[in-house]
Amino acid sequence: MNLLDYTLDELKDLFKKEGIPPYRADQVLKGVYLGHNIHEISNLPISLRELLNKKFEHIIPEVIESLKSKDDTEKFLLKIEDGNIIETALMKYSYGNTICISSQIGCRMGCKFCASCINGLIRNLTPGEMIGEILSVKNYTKEDIKRIVIMGSGEPLDNFSNVLKFLNIINREYSFNISQRNITLSTCGIVPKIYELADENLSINLAISLHAASDEIRIKIMKIACLYKINDIIDAAKYYFNKTKRRITFEYALINSVNDSKEDAYKLSKLLKGINCHVNLIPVNKVTNVNFEKPSRNRIDDFMNILIKERINTTKRRELGEDIDASCGQLKNSYFAKF
What we know:
This protein is 35% helix and 19% strand. The protein has helices at 8-17, 24-33, 46-55, 127-141, 160-170, 191-199, 215-221, 230-244, 262-272, 297-309, 330-336; strands at residues 62-68, 74-79, 85-93, 96-101, 104-106, 121-124, 147-150, 183-187, 205-209, 248-254, 277-283, 314-316. Strand 10, helix 9 and strand 11 form a beta-alpha-beta unit. Helix 4 packs across helix 5 and helix 9 (262-272) runs parallel beside helix 10 (297-309). The radius of gyration is 21 Å and the shape is elongated. The chain starts with 7 loop residues before the first helix and ends with a helix. The relative contact order is 0.12.
């Protein structure tokens, strides 16, 4: 039993059944979130530490490779208990460090521009394994972490219950005490789950991978477009905003001669007109066996300037960690290619 998979109330109930005073649960969780092993939690009696070591595990992934970019982005390959490998990235900004975590091992969404999908979905990560990503990076770098983006390998809404539990643990005082307003969840657009997430009344930020202004183009690059049309996604986004009052981010990977024309920009402007949103333009990264290319700087600028002219709040994502394969799945695939 991994201690990191439990909320404080769950651990209190479990301790009570084991004959352990429930108040000890708070001491245990505060200790492990500070990075201590059970035997290092000094305010617990030695006899209790020995008992907990027999009954519980405190599993933090092992860093097996780390690469630091010239822009100070750091990418980590982490080995979890069953031997699977996941990716996590630490990005440094003027407003504080942001960690990008994975929610699944692999992904079954099949987006053609994403390296995470190459080998499909292996399994979901548990709440404790997602928390373990943060603890592992924090222990390794000794850096404070202010923000979380669930934007690494996997589709968070395809692992809904585990991600929801993670969100309900991570902002607790005994945990990392990170405000939900400093957490962003990125989805490729599983419409029913967007509605379900909105009804949870959380205050996290929602980022939706749109990547096209028409269903005809979107279906060529994202398998999920076979299930959910763009208008359905827009309706779900509006519902999310109305429930949470959190501005929606639409992510748009610019692919040369696929979705980056001026006509595409005007279509996107018309689609998003009147929505409280922000467009994050992402020049596409090279993915093995996929013939997508990054547009020229002029095409990127033309696309962005049209959106801005049409009064759509738009920025181009800083291309962090490009020299260390920092995009989802790239470093992991490079690592396995060595063997």
